[in-house]
Structures are given as structure tokens and as C-alpha cells.
Design brief:
The complex is a heterodimer of chains A (54) and B (836). With 54 residues, chain A is an all-alpha fold. The termini of chain A are far apart. By secondary structure, chain B is an alpha+beta fold. Chain B is 50% helix and 16% strand. Chain B has a 7-stranded mixed sheet with strand order 15-27-26-25-16-23-24, sandwiched between helices. In chain B, strands 7-6-8-14-9-12 form a 6-stranded antiparallel sheet, with no helix packed on it. In chain B, strands 17-22-21-20-19-18 form a 6-stranded antiparallel sheet, sandwiched between helices. In chain B, strand 1 and strand 2 form a beta hairpin. The two termini of chain B are 20 Å apart. The chains are: A mainly alpha (54), B alpha+beta (836). At the A-B interface, helix 1 and helix 2 of A face helix 1, helix 6, helix 9 and helix 10 of B.
Chain lengths: 54, 836
């Protein structure tokens, strides 16, 4: 069980890193607009195909 | 909408464009509105209703962006798209403008945020983001559809912002500078902070839960005390972090509640968090008793999520309304010598002369110095009939110039104008309105006292029974009764309802609106635009056999509001008129089926027809008495028919009014229109004549609202004011619930609590019915939460509550409340009445 003294801190570091990543994304404005990006992504795809066709 | 729309869009290809054009030969290729007969081109595939549409269509196709139309048709957006104005946007290049709205980036490029009028769907996103390909010098154009905004980045040396704006205009959208950037930025920052709190609280809750599960297994398998302490200590660290960082908002709220001596849900939450954290820490240090860190962190997380969802929903409504604020004119065409220059309205002084083109609104109060036109003053007075003005007549800011070009000498601007004075009245009214205490806060007020007394009693009783274990049940009681479900009950029900309403085109600014509509009261309807179509239509036709279709055929050739209404007479007939000659302001003559037909005013028809007029004299008199317009028709010199024209009732108005009455509401018409018109409309709706009030000024409307508010019998019953103009704004702000309808003026939008995106009274009924259903959901949620609290509270008092049981019951109750809120039908999705 003494492995806990190693695993627990490691788990906390992992959790801390993911929280930090989330905060970085939020502060970078990645959650400001949740409506347009999903549409934009699909439109660009379609557009690329169309360009190849013509 | 996205996934369904896209699936359909991929299935269709560009031939959709051709198909639509072929199917609707007489609707505009760009905007889908009907094309006036005079503008229709024979044999052309593309038809346009106006020059702006032709320009937009040309620009879009010339740039190889024709796919826009396929995307748009696949998205299934209805007509009424904004059209470009053909303006030059010269004021966008002013230094004053740049100082306000333009930011220079570190790399030398400029960036500005613009509100875009007329942006609806995926096709608009696609088109606008193509801007850099069209307009050399524009570097980037990013659309934020939810807020109807674009952020443009451009190279100042290559292109000016006015050119960029002109391009956007040419594509058929009208750009407006996004006002109030500071407020929006502050809100975005607040949004981000809320998300950060949720993220931290969520991570803490998840990890605390894992650690707690490890401790719970100890019951079954046993665990060395050393590790039990380790897990409990780690859980404590997480809980302290969660409570002191994201959880701080609850303590702030609780402090504010104490300071203002009002009940607020934050107060019991803060007490539970504080006691739970302190008791848990003590237990960890001493190595005894229960700890509740998992429940506490989960509590913080769930409550924050609930608040965020509600906040997001209300912002969506505010954003849509904010766009509409930005649409009001901020510019004027100042006449300088022989030329005109676009300037900001604020820079106008008394004595300046401005030009007002047809379709524009007058920027300031003043006197007409040149030109003749008819002016729509409905925004100010509620009068639906346009007023004719000529040199020397006064015009008010906010009224819309309908036909000719006017030059106006400015006499008053800004707050000095009639509109400005009305606006200060609106602010005054809004301030005087009593805030309402929401049901959840009302409960929170006595909740603290009840739980507090029970806790004290429990402590006293246990002190007698078993002094060593007197603290445990008290801590358990405070934590398990912490209003987690209670805190989510109202926000969730409100959020679900407001979201559903928004999908039905009903934008609700605040959740308290639902609670304000808890009992039936009075609905005051403004006639213009809510009950009637707001345009000329055929009310009645009396005439000889076969004359109707001839009149209709003749009018098909003419583009005039009256002619458009009369076309209905020829529906299904294919008579063609020839030798059509229209006399401005009086009538039309032409030949249909070889017979000479004349349609127009009484005087005009009398000049071409010598007999038969007396047969219709009764109808004409009747029409005039009820405020309608009568148009006579003659065939071969004999008067053979009369058409009565007016603003017809909306098809859903009667049904809506009777449903409101059925719910116990008193329905009254309070209109600025002529009393005879109000009475005719009210009569058609089955309202008593004392409930049809016409000719009311804005001040009188406000007085009527106040009268109803003070009416003893109506106390605590809502007064719902429905209106659209500046003339209604003060009344809207003062009423219990102000509802601004489709196409309303800025003032009414800012004053109202609810904005209806669909025209008519139907949505008002839906609002009332939906609010009732939403309130029922709120009450059910609250009852459930209280029941849950009674159950767990009793267990805690009896000393039977364990940390494991609390950890299971707490999220369970919250989940139930969430499910109940989102599964319940509030707005839309119902078919009673069978209207839609």
C-alpha cells in the first residue's frame, strides 16, 4: 500500500495539469462562442471538396 | 439546428438554386419576397424585388459564391432577409469612429467588431467568412453567429473600413458598429471566470469523490489507519481548495444577503459549506467520525453548473435584443451646400439641415423645409395611417419617411426630442417597478430559520441522550439539508423554459418574468402591429358579378399598397389588363376583356363614371365611419363595385383573445389609433366597448397601466402590456410584464421584459400558457426538494445519516430535479387549440 505515497501525488499532478489546460483554453477564449465553430468546420470541409471538383 | 440542416445540405447541390427560381417565378431570387409586377422581367430566370437585391445577387454570383443560395435554401430559413442599403458607410472612416470602435493590433493590422443585421444561418456564416477573398485588404472575417457579430481584421493601407462595410452591405447584410464594447467585454470576462470556477470545482469534486470511495471501502475490507488518514487528508485539501476558490461566490452572496437582511439561497449554502468544512477538518485531525468532503465539493460543482447554464441562456436573449438596439439610426445626412455628408446624429445642432430619403427614419425633431412625403409616425403615436407632410410641417425624430425625399431643419436633438423625453419617462417607469422576490429566495428565507432551530433542538436533545456524540447529527443535518436540489430547482426549470421559449421565437430577458405571470390579470394590447396585419388589406368587396376579377387584373399592373391589396380579387383568374394608366393619388384606368375599367377614389371614379354611384353610397359611408378606406370601381362608365380597405385583423387574433379570456385574463385594447378604429377591431374580437380604448397618448397609456396596477381587486395580479412603439415604451416598463412585439422600436425593446420574434398575438398566449406550465414545474421541483430535505433531515436528526448515504442521496436528488426540468413541456411542443 505504500505505493500510494507515490501514486497519489502523481494523480494530483495529472489532475492539476488537466485543470491548468482547461484554464488556459478558457482564458484563450476557446469557450466564448459555442455556436459557430461546429458549423464553420463542416463548411470548410465541403468547400475544399468543391474546389477540387472545379 | 446544425446536424439536420447539414445532412440536408449535403444531399442537395447547387441545382437547388435553379429549382427554387423556376418554382417561384414571381418571388425575388435574392430575398424571396414577392416581386412587384412593374419590376418583373419577362422570361428572365432571375427576378428581383428591388435594386439592393439585384446588387447583392450580382455581387455574390460574380465572386463565385452562388453556393450561398443552395446552403440557404437547405437551411430552410424563411424570407425577410435583411437587404443591403447601398450606403457608402463614410462615417466608418471618421477619426471619432475609429477611436470608439477600431483597435490596432501589434502587427499593424486593424480590427473592429461589427453587428450584422440579417445574419441567420450557416449560409450567412459561409458567405461572410469569404469576405477576404472578395475584398482585397481584408485579412480575416470571423463570424460569431450566436451574437450576430463579425470581427473583421483589415490592412489599413490597402483598404478602408468603409470599403469593407460596403462589401458586407453588397452581400446583403447591414453592418453596424457594435456599441457598448466595454459592457460586452466585461460580460465575456465574467463568463470566463464562471467557466474557470466550474472547471476547478469539477476537478476537485471528481477527485474528492474517488478518494471518498476509497475510504468507504474501508467498511467492507478494512484499511490501515495510516492510509485512511492519508485519503481523508487529501480529500480535505481538495474540499478546502474547492470551497475557498470556486465556492467563494456563495460566501459573497451570503454576506450580501445578511447585509441587506433578505433571504437568499446563498445563505444556507454558505452555512452548510462552512460547517461541513470545519467539522470535517476537525474529524480528520482527530481521526474520528464522518467527513463529507465528497458531498461538499459536488455541491459546489452542481450549483455552479446550474447558475452558469441559466446565465448563458439569459445572455442569449440579451444578445439578440442588443443587436436590435444597434440598428436604430445613429447617422444623419447633413446638407452642406449642394452636397450631403453622413454624420453622427450626436454632432447635429439646431439649425442644421438634414436630408431624409424614403425608407429612412428622421434623425431629429425639426421642420420640413423642402419636399413632400408621407411619414409613418406609428412608432411615436401608434397611429397606423401615414401622415402627409410638406414644407413647414413638423416632423419628429423616429418617424419613418415613406415616399419622397425630405429636407428637415433640425430644431431639437437627442434627449430634447419628443422621443428623448419619452425615453426619460421610460427610465422613470422602470425604476418605480417593484422587484419581485422569487419563490426560491422566499423559501430560503425561512429555510435558514427552520433548519437552524431544528439543529439547535437536535443538539440539545442529543446532549441529554449521549453528550459525546451530540455534534455529529447536527453537522449531518446541516449538510444533507443544504439546498442543493433547492438551489437547482428554480434555475433549471427557468433555464429549460426560457430555452424552449427562445426556440419558439419568444425571447425572455429574465426568469422572474415567468413568476410574474403566476395569476391571470389584465392584458393590454396595442392595436397596431399586434392585432392587425399592419398593412393595407381587403376587408370587404361589394360589386356586380365579374367586376372583382377585372379590378384585380387591372391592379396587378400597379405597384401601390392599395393595388397590392386589390390583387386578391383576381386570384385564380388570368385576365390581362391593357392600356393601363395610373394617375398618382387618385386611381387607375385600363381595358380588361375589352371593357373600360376605372378604379380609384370616389372623386376620381365620379369623373369617369356617370351612373350607379348611389348604389354603393351606403357601403362607402359605413366604411368611412369605421375608419376604413373605400375604393370605387366602374366598368364602361357605370359604378359597379366598391372595395373596403383597411388594416385587417390577423388570422390568429380572435382565437388568441378568446384563449386569454378563457384563462381568466381581462383583455383590453389601448391604442393610439383613432377610437373608431380601436372599437371596430375590438368589436371584431368580441370585446366590450369599454375595453376598446383608442386615441391614447403615451402618457395616458402609462396612466392606464398604473390604474390597473393600483386597482385593489387586481393587487398582486399581473398587468401585461403588449406593444411595439416608442409610444408604448413607458407603459411597457411600468407594467408587471412588458412584451415588445416583432418589428418594435428600440425603446420598446429596452423597456420590455419579453421580445416576440414572431408577429401577432399568438405568441403572447404561448408566453402566458408556457409561463404557467413552467411555474408548475418550478413548484413541483421545489416540493420535491423540500420532501427530500425532510426525509434526509429526519435521518440526520435520528443519527442515522452516514457520509456514504449523504454522498448517494445528494447527487440523486439533483439529478431528479434536472431530469424533471428538462423532460417537462413548457413552451412549444404542445398542440392544444390546434393552431399550429
Amino acid at each position: 500500500m505504500s505505493v500510494m505515497y507515490l501514486v497519489l501525488p502523481l494523480a494530483f499532478v495529472g489532475a492539476g495539469l488537466s485543470v491548468w489546460a482547461f484554464l488556459w483554453a478558457v482564458r484563450g477564449g476557446q469557450f466564448d462562442d459555442l455556436d459557430t465553430p461546429p458549423m464553420r468546420m463542416l463548411l470548410d470541409d465541403e468547400d475544399g471538396v468543391a474546389k477540387k471538383d472545379s | 439546428m446544425s446536424s439536420g440542416v447539414l445532412a440536408a445540405e449535403f444531399a442537395m447541390s447547387t441545382e437547388a438554386v435553379e429549382r427554387t427560381v423556376a418554382a417561384a417565378a414571381c418571388s425575388c431570387t435574392h430575398c424571396g419576397l414577392p416581386v412587384p409586377a412593374g419590376l418583373a422581367e419577362d422570361g428572365a430566370d432571375e427576378q428581383f424585388c428591388c435594386g439592393a437585391c439585384r446588387i447583392a445577387y450580382g455581387a455574390i454570383n460574380a465572386c463565385g459564391l452562388g453556393r450561398y443560395y443552395a446552403l440557404r435554401d437547405a437551411a430552410g430559413v424563411d424570407a425577410e432577409r435583411a437587404k443591403g442599403t447601398g450606403r457608402k458607410y463614410a462615417e466608418f472612416d471618421d477619426d471619432a469612429f475609429a477611436a470608439l470602435y477600431v483597435k490596432e493590433r501589434a502587427d499593424g493590422l486593424c480590427t473592429a467588431e461589427l453587428f450584422i443585421e440579417g445574419m441567420h444561418c450557416i449560409a450567412c456564416v459561409w458567405l461572410l467568412e469569404k469576405l477576404p477573398e472578395l475584398c482585397p485588404g481584408a485579412v480575416e472575417c470571423r463570424v460569431e453567429l450566436g451574437r450576430s457579430m463579425v470581427r473583421v481584421v483589415w490592412d489599413r493601407d490597402a483598404v478602408s473600413l468603409s470599403d469593407v462595410a460596403t462589401w458586407i452591405d453588397r452581400l446583403g447584410y447591414v453592418p453596424h458598429p457594435a456599441r457598448d464594447g466595454a459592457a460586452r467585454k466585461a460580460r465575456r470576462e465574467a463568463d470566463r471566470r464562471a467557466l474557470v470556477r466550474i472547471g476547478v470545482a469539477g476537478a476537485n469534486a471528481g477527485n474528492a469523490m474517488l478518494l471518498a470511495i476509497a475510504v468507504y471501502t474501508e467498511r467492507f475490507n478494512g484499511m490501515e489507519p495510516e492510509f485512511k488518514f492519508l485519503f481523508r487528508a487529501c480529500g480535505m485539501a481538495l474540499a478546502v481548495l474547492s470551497i475557498s476558490w470556486p465556492g467563494r461566490v456563495f460566501f459573497k452572496g451570503a454576506l450580501a444577503a445578511i447585509r441587506t437582511r433578505t433571504g437568499h439561497l446563498d445563505l444556507p449554502i454558505a452555512i452548510a459549506l462552512g460547517i461541513g468544512a470545519v467539522a470535517g477538518t476537525v474529524n480528520v485531525v482527530l481521526g474520528i467520525g464522518e467527513v463529507y468532503f465528497d458531498a461538499l465539493t459536488m455541491l459546489v460543482f452542481l450549483l455552479l453548473v446550474g447558475r452558469w447554464v441559466q446565465r448563458r441562456r439569459q445572455e442569449a436573449a440579451t444578445d439578440s435584443i442588443e443587436l436590435l438596439y444597434s440598428i436604430t439610426p445613429m447617422r444623419a445626412r447633413l446638407v452642406v451646400g449642394d452636397d450631403t455628408r453622413e454624420v453622427a446624429v450626436e454632432s447635429l445642432d439646431a439649425g442644421a439641415v438634414v436630408e431624409v430619403l424614403a425608407g429612412e427614419s428622421v434623425p431629429a425633431d425639426g421642420v420640413v423645409v423642402r419636399g413632400r412625403s408621407s411619414v409613418d409616425v406609428s412608432v411615436l403615436t401608434g397611429e397606423s395611417r401615414p401622415v402627409d407632410v410638406g414644407t413647414g410641417d413638423e416632423v419628429c425624430a423616429g418617424s419613418v419617411n415613406m415616399s419622397g425625399v425630405l429636407r428637415v431643419r433640425v430644431e431639437a436633438t437627442g434627449a430634447e426630442t419628443r422621443v428623448g423625453r419619452l425615453m426619460s419617462m421610460v427610465e422613470e417607469s422602470a425604476r418605480r417597478r417593484a422587484p419581485i422576490v422569487t419563490a426560491a429566495d422566499k423559501i430560503a428565507g425561512w429555510f435558514v430559520w427552520v433548519v437552524g432551530s431544528i439543529a439547535l433542538a437536535t443538539f440539545a436533545v442529543w446532549l441529554v441522550i449521549d453528550a459525546g456524540h451530540a455534534v455529529e447529527p447536527v453537522v449531518a443535518l446541516l449538510i444533507v439539508t443544504c439546498p442543493c436540489a433547492l438551489g437547482l430547482a428554480t434555475p433549471m426549470a427557468v433555464t429549460a423554459a426560457v430555452g424552449r421559449a427562445a426556440r419558439q421565437g419568444i425571447l425572455i430577458k429574465g426568469g422572474d418574468v415567468l413568476e410574474r405571470l403566476n395569476k391571470p390579470g389584465v392584458v393590454l394590447l396595442d392595436k397596431t402591429g399586434t392585432l392587425t396585419e399592419g398593412r393595407f388589406g381587403l376587408v370587404r368587396w361589394v360589386g356586380d358579378e365579374g367586376v372583382g376579377p377585372m379590378v384585380g387584373a387591372l391592379e396587378r399592373q400597379v405597384a401601390h399598397p392599395i393595388a397590392v391589396a386589390l390583387r386578391e380579387l383576381a386570384e385564380g383568374d388570368d385576365l390581362v389588363a391593357s392600356d393601363v394608366e395610373s394617375r398618382v393619388g387618385s386611381g387607375v384606368v385600363g381595358v380588361v376583356s375589352g371593357r373600360r375599367v376605372a378604379v380609384g377614389s370616389e372623386r376620381f371614379v365620379a369623373s369617369v363614371a356617370t351612373s350607379g354611384a348611389e348604389r354603393f353610397a351606403g357601403v362607402v359611408r359605413e366604411a368611412r365611419e369605421s375608419g376604413l378606406t373605400a375604393v370605387l370601381a366602374s366598368v364602361d362608365g357605370r359604378v359597379s363595385g366598391v372595395a373596403v380597405l383597411g388594416d385587417p385583423l390577423r388570422s390568429d387574433a380572435k382565437d388568441a383573445v378568446s384563449r386569454l379570456k378563457g384563462m381568466g385574463y381581462r383583455v383590453r385594447i389601448v391604442s393610439g389609433d383613432d377610437p373608431s378604429v380601436a372599437e371596430r377591431v375590438g368589436g371584431a374580437l368580441g370585446l366590450a366597448s369599454e375595453d376598446c380604448l383608442g386615441g391614447k397618448s403615451p402618457e395616458q397609456k402609462l396612466a392606464i397601466v398604473e390604474e390597473h396596477l393600483e386597482d385593489a381587486a387586481m393587487r398582486s395580479r399581473p398587468v401585461v402590456m403588449v406593444g411595439d412603439g416608442v409610444n408604448d415604451a413607458a407603459a411597457l416598463a411600468r407594467a408587471t410584464v412588458g412584451v415588445a412585439v416583432h418589428g418594435g422600436a428600440e425603446a420598446s425593446l429596452s423597456a420590455a421584459d419579453v421580445y416576440l420574434q414572431r408577429p401577432g398575438v399568438g405568441p403572447v398566449v404561448e408566453l402566458v400558457e408556457g409561463s404557467r406550465r413552467a411555474l408548475r414545474v418550478i413548484r413541483r421541483n421545489l416540493a420535491f426538494s423540500l420532501g427530500y430535505n425532510v426525509l434526509t433531515g429526519s435521518l440526520a436528526v435520528l443519527g442515522l445519516m452516514t457520509a456514504l448515504l449523504a454522498a448517494v442521496l445528494m447527487p440523486l436528488s439533483s439529478l431528479t430535479v434536472l431530469t424533471m426540468s428538462y423532460r417537462s413541456r413548457t413552451f412549444g411542443q404542445h398542440s392544444d387549440g390546434g393552431r399550429r
